[in-house]
Amino acid sequence: MVRQMKSLLFLFIVLVLSETVISARKPSKSQSKPCKNFVLYYHDIMFGVDDVQNATSAAVTNPPGLGNFKFGKLVIFDDPVTIDKNYQSEPVARAQGFYFYDMKNDYNAWFSYTLVFNSTQHKGTLNIMGADLMMEKTRDLSVVGGTGDFFMSRGIVTFETDTFEGAKYFRVKMDIKLYDCY
Fold first, then answer.
1. pLDDT at residue 125, as a whole number
2. pLDDT tens per residue across span 144-175
3. Which of 144, 124, 137, 126 has the alpha carbon at shortest distance from 172?
4. Residue 169 in 3-state DSSP?
5. Are 145 and 153 in contact, with CB atoms under 8 Å apart?
6. Do the Cβ atoms of 118 and 142 come closer than 8 Å?
7. Average pLDDT over residues 102-122
8. How many whole angstroms separate alpha carbon 113 and alpha carbon 75?
């Protein structure tokens, strides 16, 4: 009888602990509102011949000539991110990473970068990656993690091209919605 009681007690403890672990790891699919939401502007100035001081990005490979859509071109960047459209505004973060053109028959890029925050409002990083289907009005990229104020965050960044001046300069509005906040 005592042995059966010990077995039942052990089984009960295992069930309670496993349910606790499972419920702690289960993502909430019912969360329809983000726990954090903010809009930032990403400014990119491509390196040319005479703008070393102002350039924030540079092509490290040239397209191999497979089509008219820059297929194969790789660009690295360290771009300022502001809370408004003004490039001269104080940056609240830096976007540091790369993108490459990965489609032969249309403009499309794949981004992987980190938003590095070092302002009075936020400290830490957000890691972002995904396809930028440039011909679409809005595009969603994934927030796959973060540090500091954004520890282990996950969510969506919606890109919307705000200004495009050829290959020289572009500004993207980033609507950042985080659904996992700790």
1. 97
2. 999 999 999 999 999 999 998 877 889 999 99
3. 137
4. strand
5. yes
6. no
7. 90
8. 11
Give dist(CA 108, CA 128) in Å, integer.
Answer: 16
What is the maximal distance between C-alpha atoms in the chain?
A: 88
The kind and range of the H/E element at 31 are none
pLDDT per position as a tens digit, 53-69: 788 898 898 877 777 77
Nearest residue to 45 (alpha-carbon basis) of 173, 168, 171: 168
34: tokens are 């983000």
* Dihedral sign from CA coordinates of 111, 167, 135, 86: positive
Secondary structure element (H or E) that encloses residue 102, with its range = none
Q: What predicted TM-score, i.e. pTM, was given to this entire model?
A: 0.77
Angle at 97 between CA 96 and CA 98, to 5 degrees: 145
DSSP label of 107: -
* Beta pairing class for 93-101 and 109-118: antiparallel
Single-letter amino acid, residue 28:
S
What is the chain's alpha carbon radius of gyration, rounded to the nearest angstrom?
22
Choose among 129, 167, 126, 168: nearest CA to 150. 126
